[in-house]
Design a protein that fits this description.
Elements lengths: L24 E5 L5 H11 L9 E5 L21 E7 L9 H17 L4 E3 L3 E4 L2 E13 L2 E10 L8 H5 L5 H5 L7 H20 L5 H6 L6 E7 L8 E9 L5 E4 L5 E4 L2 E9 L3
Parallel strand pairs: 1-2
Antiparallel strand pairs: 2-3, 3-7, 4-5, 5-6, 6-7, 8-9, 8-12, 9-10, 10-11
Helix pairs in contact: 2-5
Length: 277
Amino acid sequence: MSVKSVESSEFTTLENEFQGRIGTRVIHLRNTTSTMDVARDLVEETHELKTLDGTVIIADEQTKGRGRFGRSWDSGHGEDILASVILCPRLAITGELTTMAALAAAMTVDELTTRSSAIKWPNDVLVDGKKICGVIAESATTGSSFVGVIGIGLNVNRIADDRVLQEYDATSVREVLRLETQVDRRSAVRVLLANLNELYDALVRGESIMPEWRDRLSVLNSYVEVTMASERNVGEIVSGIAEDVDEFGRLLIRESSGNLRAVAAGEVTMRAEQVGQ
């Protein structure tokens, strides 16, 4: 695949600041099907996968952007952050890449909006209960090499009368700030990359970021229903009180029978019945 990247733009100049880290190479596309598609093609076509480590792909517009469970992720041209990050970490930290991305996105939203965001398990970022960012992850193993691709869709400039925001109960940085003018996307991307690097560096040092991620979870101590998404349990619904998460990020749900169920992946819905903190 030939990647027709913008040779020099406000985004590619970020490479100067993030050399040797996440952002060491920035591919800026005006239009593509999905940054995840581009990342996957790069992985398939590259023999030395380590050369892709830290590559960030940013698009102004996606024609087939997708979120979790195959849902579409729509965005107007040049409005939002539509990005994928390619990482080649050691195997010990691969399970925390999605957690890292969700937490970095939440930290970024906090900095951009001066508000406190929350994470809807496992990786949607919310402000005032409305979705502002979604994260997905894909992985591949070639020989002894692991490659993780993280997709981040952060609503930066979409406005309240946008049909999609209303349909999905979503919001954006611009809407939260109630701005008449657009938020600078380059500045937003720079903040995101800085936060990703801060957390990734912590993982590389052997530190855990799970406690900070856990503290932001909006579902804990609430009655939830989770539609399972694992291969063996597609469509199965687990309901009960979300008591905690374990060291793997699985949601621990206390069912009405008293059984404590660990859920690794699924679509969670919070219900009115709640217990106190």
